[in-house]
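re: that complex we talked abt at group meeting.

here r the seqs, copy pasted straight from the sheet so there may be weird spacing, ignore it
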Amino acid sequence: MTEPVAPGSAPDSADAAPPETVAARLAFFQRAGGLIVPVITAVIAFLIGGVIVAATGHNPITAYWDIAKGAGLNWFGHFTTDIGDTSAYNLSQTLLSTTTLILTGLAVAFAFRCGLFNIGGQGQYLVGLIVANWIGVSWMHLARPAHVLIGVALATLAGALWAGIAGFLKATVGAHEVITTIMLNWIAYWLGSWVFGQGGPLQGPQPSSPISATIDDSARIPYFWGDSTLGGLHVGFFVALLALVLFWIVLSRTTLGYEVRAVGFNPEAAAYGGISVRKNYVRAMAISGAFAGLAGGMDMLSQYAPIGFGTLDVQTSSIGFLGIAVALLGRNTALGTGIAAFLFGALLYGTTHGLDSNVIAPQLTGNLTSIIQGLVVLFVGADVLILYLWNVRRKLRVAGRRAEASA
Amino acid sequence: MSAVAAYADRFRRSRLSDVRSIGALGIALGALAFWLAIPPFSTRTYVWPIVVGVLAIAAGVWTVARGVRRLGWGAVAAGVLGVSLAVLALQSSTSNLDQVFDASLIASMLVFATPLTFGAIGGMFSERSGVVNVALEGMMLMGAFFGIYGADKTGSWFLGILIAMLAGGLLALVHAFFAIHLRADQIVGGIAINFLALGITGYFFFQLYHGANISPNIPRIPNVRIPWVRDQSFIGPAIGNLNLLIWVAIALVPISYIVMFKTPIGLRIRACGEHPRAADTVGINVYAVRYASVVTSGMLASLGGVFLSVGFVGTFNENMTNGRGFIALAALIFGNWRPFGAFGAALLFGFSTALAFRLPVYSDSAATLFQALPYVLTLIAVAGVIGRTIPPAAVGRPYKKQ
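got the structure back, here u go
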């Protein structure tokens, strides 16, 4: 993880004045390449989002402030550990979204490091969720830690296998992983609609409602802040943080990670160096899928445990897709993914459930999240544009200085 | 007489002695084996489907023995599948079968195939020119919302269609700009466009209609009532009263074939998708061709969306296209980036969707699971089990002028 990463999404960090000596300034721009693009990207996306909000007759500044409050960011102003406090509760829910987004983000980032674009995070997440649900509502004879661990482990395995299909097809017949993961997403979508739906194998006790049964108590992930019925934060948050560390260690400190990155840089060169490209394609996809499957398993055994998961949830869930934006904004690094996951977690919760605003309706801001997400992905993909804009700014400044000098 | 004989001779030589034709015949026989068991034939004995199915398998084996492996195994699979589906259908009561398989199934197949056809043909233009288009879903969604918005505000369905095409074209222009000028990753860009379209249509749907209140009296795209055909027994309910855009979609297939494979324009588009450097060398403006193709694809895909909202349903709801753009992409791949192939795949996927909507007669859950069929088939197709899909050589690669 040698690439520098944005220390935060704060816009002013990019606008900080570069140091004055020539060498220091050069070094700054060198470093900034990895840092500036994501920061400017996020700023532009939020600005355009603000323009749309303003154009439709709402005040963008108060709207964004309400979203920030909805995400519980005002908690940082006054600390409290009392989950009954609105800001603390909102923050705990933001961190809950962050937990999932870290893992779905890593699912995209890991494959990216191997030169593969895993759009299948959503499908892998759903498959993990379905398996965790199956284990959580049946397998009742298991004791508490075993039940949770087996549920999460098999969900992870399911995600790995689901993504492994795409990796296998890529390695054997060269089928493009984007096409296969898109198809696998939709297969998982209908599979989920079927298992939880009318007459499906995992439909709950009420025959008329297409929703799963609630998870057995022994299979629920323990909460360390708040509790599962009222909402709060479960220990999975630390699992996600651990996954970030693991991601970094595996990629930059192990042979496996070296091979994955070598294939990602240049498959031909890696093959020439004796690395099996095919094996790494399958392996990278499987590890990617494992992250997403873990996310699905933990979500099912925590926040969805007391209410169950239904066909409608399957069809409206999009947290796996949001992982794409998270990974791209985080430049596929561990730290970047963590920060981007927090940004999008705040945006996701702050624009939907947390929002309590007279300025702008939650239905509008929910869609604003999609717009910002789209803009972020669009601009991150086009770092040429961002660097161009950055350079124009520099040129303008130089031109301005020249004009001053000649005047 | 001699001319007829010569023609017959040529026909015999080119068609019947061709191994591939026997293979294709095998696949057709496999389909027939199933067809015999359902209305209008509705045979109630196992004999005929099995006889026809065995013939299909024999044709397949014969083809495999002569070296045409893929087609031959395809025919064998079609025979086995045809017989098993026929046996399944024979287990069911005739009244249920009549309810599921009637002439209106063809009409509803065409309804579901139409957005897919527009999307797939649109996607073909973009991908043949060398720009991957996974954003068909978003472009379709833009067409669906802005079409109904336009029809509502202007009071004319025709202007609604034009506004939809404008919206789809504009979104495609964004995709084109990032893919062509900024040389961004085309798949990343396409995914972004899908998020954007979902956000924009959802945002304006709530801003303008509060998420529900689209007037039920918006002008709809009319149906074409064919006077004589409409009164016929089987064809009447099947094609006698179809939406105008369905006929446009059907007409689009040969037109796009001619444009793509028989005109200089098509040659240029394909050149840009296969070898942009060579195209540039002979004086083709690669950027211009790609821009035009991507915008065309956006406009065509938005026609698929406007058919859904202004044509078929008459209202809009959030994420209305619900994956149809991705099925269109699947149809394009399944059809090997060719108009008739894509149309055939769209019909197949449309048929499976239409069937899925009728299967609740038997079982709700089976009907839901059945919706996954297009995606499973495409997965099998790209895995190379049924024939090989060959994308344009330079698709997805940004071109840099020298």
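couple things i noticed - The longest helix of chain B spans residues 286-313. Strands of chain B lie at 223-225, 241-243.
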